[in-house]
Amino acid sequence: MLEKTIQQQVEKGTMLPLMEEFYTIQGEGYHTGRAAYFIRVGGCDVGCHWCDVKESWDPEKHPPTGVDQIVVNAAKYSKTIVVTGGEPLTWNMEPLTTGLKNASLDVHIETSGAYPLSGHWDWICLSPKKAKMPLPEVYEAAHELKVIVFNRHDLAFAKAESEKVSSTCKLFLQPEWSVREKMIPFITEFVMENPEWQVSLQTHKYLNIP
């Protein structure tokens, strides 16, 4: 009966499979350099072969945790909260974001956009993946488009994706970490030819922080 109750709470979003939570510096995209508290939720079936947190994919490996406790933990550290995964939109984000907003926190999400948008967000970073493309509603709501560049074909993919977001959406290209030295010259050339784009680097890895 207890397991059934927990599963029901996970389905409602009042509990989430929490992989980890930590206070650090945002290393990517528009908010690079800002202190932020990260909430990493388990569960993802998008399946990027270069994913650097594959351990997040199986939600069964991460304990269901009450969102009230997650909010209490987050509020101790930072005004900026980043919900990431895994793929956080696998779950109902309404209870978590309601709690975070009630605590007067700025709430960001990093998502592939492959699932329906739920929750209340101050900033939506959309990072589309070819294996499971974003839903139209997420393109429309995105504040930031961040395309991971693993090969040169991803530059054409990025340009096509930029046509699906709003005119005010910030555009970023980020080299996949394992091929960064190979891809950075192509990215910088692309950005110089297409100045509406910006370069994003995983600066937290250069700083040797989480």
Automatic annotation (TrEMBL):
Homodimer. Substrate binds at I25, Q26, G27, R40, T84, P210. Pathway: Purine metabolism; 7-cyano-7-deazaguanine biosynthesis. Belongs to the radical SAM superfamily. 7-carboxy-7-deazaguanine synthase family. Pfam families: Fer4_12 (PF13353). One of its GO terms (biological process) is tRNA queuosine(34) biosynthetic process. It is an enzyme of class 4 (lyase). S-adenosyl-L-methionine binds at W50, C51, D52, G86, S127, P128, K129. Residues 31-210 form the Radical SAM core domain. [4Fe-4S] cluster binds at C44, C48, C51. Keywords: 4Fe-4S, Iron, Iron-sulfur, Lyase, Magnesium, Metal-binding, Queuosine biosynthesis, S-adenosyl-L-methionine. Binds 1 S-adenosyl-L-methionine per subunit. Catalyzes the complex heterocyclic radical-mediated conversion of 6-carboxy-5,6,7,8-tetrahydropterin (CPH4) to 7-carboxy-7-deazaguanine (CDG), a step common to the biosynthetic pathways of all 7-deazapurine-containing compounds. Its EC number is 4.3.99.3. Gene3D superfamilies: Aldolase class I. Its cofactor is Mg(2+); S-adenosyl-L-methionine; [4Fe-4S] cluster. One of its GO terms (molecular function) is S-adenosyl-L-methionine binding. PROSITE patterns: RADICAL_SAM. This is 7-carboxy-7-deazaguanine synthase.
